[in-house]
From TrEMBL:
Subcellular localization, as worded in the UniProt entry: Membrane
Gene3D superfamilies in alphabetical order: Cytochrome P450 (1.10.630.10)
Protein name: Cytochrome P450
Organism the protein comes from: Roridomyces roridus
InterPro entries from the UniProt entry: Cyt_P450, Cyt_P450_CS, Cyt_P450_E_grp-I, Cyt_P450_sf, Cytochrome_P450_fung
Record: residues binding heme: C436
């Protein structure tokens, strides 16, 4: 009997030591917050807006620190030099993604931005790079410019609905370019359903929004009726596939009918075998590109307008510059952009001040990594704290203030004398092999719209019942992996009557461009088009 008591005591001691070790920080890891046995830092991992807490920890533990999430390890990078070394110079071994259970539930591993680094990802990425070249972006300028003209026209007629107008523009522009089919209204089915799906999808993907399935696998066994996240994943999967396969089927029908209009997915369909894509992969290549371009551009342009309202002096300087360069008698074109240094600086400052992706989609190491005096184990999750980098007072003077002028002083907006060669002007489009393949298309879209909104309109705070200005809230932002201002009110008015007339004339002229992209419109959409193009 005594022997069994001793044996049980020894086993209990070993189990205690094992549990105590699980969740503890290995001695060669970067420092980080204190851990608890078994759970590590899980108890302090932020469930909402984690970039704020990650930035606070960076002030305490430095530009590279570690978090223990149960037995797993997460590394948070808030130093652009370390980001460059790990994720760009060593991209062959740091380009994997975490095995995210919720992503598997929704996409079955077919989301180009979130799936694991492997043959499926390489095939999809190869197709995206083949079609999204700078030269191809130039060929798509006519429809991008026409969509931007409708955005101006929509702002002119119903400025109070500017959030929806921005959504229609960003979704319709990329749908026209990719699938050759536009949305004349926000209510057009493809656009309204897309944003409904993306709202739920982004919220589900935010770090901390779901239990740590991948670290505590038993949580995957919880029945769906007791799992709100599983029910959400099932609903989003149905919506996502209906949209993406619907986009593809419409393109296939047009090609069969000889109604090609030069859209990118026509080329993908023609070269599908060369790229190594099956039909499901093809649908997700296009669908995920629509995701990236629609959501991030919409978020960015909302922040752009928010900052114009909040910082009237910056808006005044931008107005003065565009009036001097473009004049009063025509819209701005992409050829004007290089002659507008202050407006370019303003766009960069919006990226810095309110980055669309405050934490980039995490990477995963596929081998052990040594950096500085630390060892980062194989399989570690790496978070790039873009917010922390772009708000670092060691890099930027008064980073919490909005100062476009900083980008006129130095190329990357950093303090004079700072070596910022490793810092990208904007981290919005990712780093290393996982950077966004549609960067040229997105930057062109943002530039055309921003220039023409500044040329055409004044953006001022809304007024209350007593006529007092209502200040906008610069911190009221949505939850999710991408960050957009919550709906806010403002006054949008044409700067002159002549400019309003130019917008109306340009919109009528753009209908010839629109016509070859208006396929499969509903009766309501057709009525809308006819009403505004008579």
């Amino acid at each position: 009997m005594a022997f069994y008591l001793v044996l049980c005591s020894l086993l209990a001691g070993v189990a205690f030591l094992f549990v105590k070790k699980v969740g503890s920080r290995e001695t060669d890891l970067p420092p980080g917050p204190p851990t608890l046995p078994f759970i590590g830092n899980l108890h302090v991992f932020p469930r909402e807006a984690p970039h704020h807490q990650f930035t606070e920890w960076a002030k305490q533990y430095g530009g590279i620190y570690s978090l223990k999430i149960g037995p797993g390890t997460a590394i948070v990078l808030s130093d652009p030099n370390i980001v460059k070394v790990l994720l760009e110079k060593r991209s062959a071994t740091t380009s994997d993604r975490p095995s995210i259970y919720i992503v598997k539930l929704v996409t079955r591993g077919l989301h180009m931005g979130l799936n694991r680094y492997g043959e499926t990802w390489k095939a999809m990425r190869r197709a995206a790079h083949a079609i999204l070249t700078p030269q191809a972006a130039t060929r798509q300028l006519p429809i991008q410019q026409a969509e931007a003209v409708q955005l101006l026209y929509d702002f002119l007629n119903t400025p109070e609905s500017f959030h929806r107008h921005l959504g229609r523009y960003t979704n319709s522009a990329i749908m026209s370019v990719l699938f050759g089919k536009r949305s004349p209204r926000y209510e057009t089915r493809e656009t309204s359903e897309f944003f409904r799906m993306m709202h739920d999808w982004a919220a589900l993907l935010e770090p901390g929004a779901t239990p740590p399935f991948d670290l505590i696998p038993i949580l995957k066994l919880i029945p769906q009726r007791w799992s709100a996240w599983k029910r959400a994943a099932s609903r989003i999967r149905v919506m996502q596939r209906a949209l993406y396969f619907g986009y593809l089927e419409d393109t296939e029908k047009r090609v069969e009918n000889g109604e090609e209009n030069g859209s990118y997915m026509e080329e993908v369909l023609a070269r599908r075998e060369e790229f190594g894509l099956d039909r499901e992969m093809t649908a997700y290549v296009g669908g995920v590109l629509v995701e990236g371009a629609s959501e991030t551009t919409w978020s960015y342009l909302n922040s752009f307008i928010l900052t114009l309202v909040a910082f009237p002096e910056a808006q005044k300087k931008a107005h003065e510059e565009i009036d001097r360069v473009v004049g009063q008698d025509r819209l701005a074109t992409l050829a004007d952009f290089e002659q507008l240094p202050y407006i370019r600086a303003l766009l960069f400052e919006v990226h810095r001040f309110r980055p669309v992706a405050p934490l980039l989609v995490p990477h995963v190491t596929t081998i052990n990594q040594r950096i500085e005096n630390y060892i980062i184990p194989k399989g570690s999750t790496i978070f790039v704290n873009a917010w922390g980098i772009l708000h670092d007072p060691e890099l930027f003077d008064d980073p919490e203030s909005f100062q476009p002028e900083r980008y006129l002083i130095t190329e990357n907006g950093t303090k004079p004398g700072i070596d910022a060669s490793s810092l990208k002007t904007t981290l919005t489009f990712g780093v290393g092999r996982r950077s966004c393949p549609g960067i040229h298309l997105a930057q062109t879209s943002m530039s055309i719209v921003a220039m023409n909104l500044l040329w055409a309109f004044d953006f001022k705070p809304a007024l209350d019942a007593q006529g007092n200005e209502i200040a906008v809230d610069l911190f009221a932002y949505s939850k999710g992996v991408t960050m957009a201002p919550l709906p806010f009110e403002c006054r949008i008015t044409p700067r002159t009557g002549d400019k309003a007339e130019i917008i109306r004339r340009e919109f009528l002229d753009a209908t010839d461009v629109f016509e070859k992209f208006e396929f499969g419109l509903s009766a309501d959409d057709k009525a809308f088009v006819e009403r505004f193009t008579r």
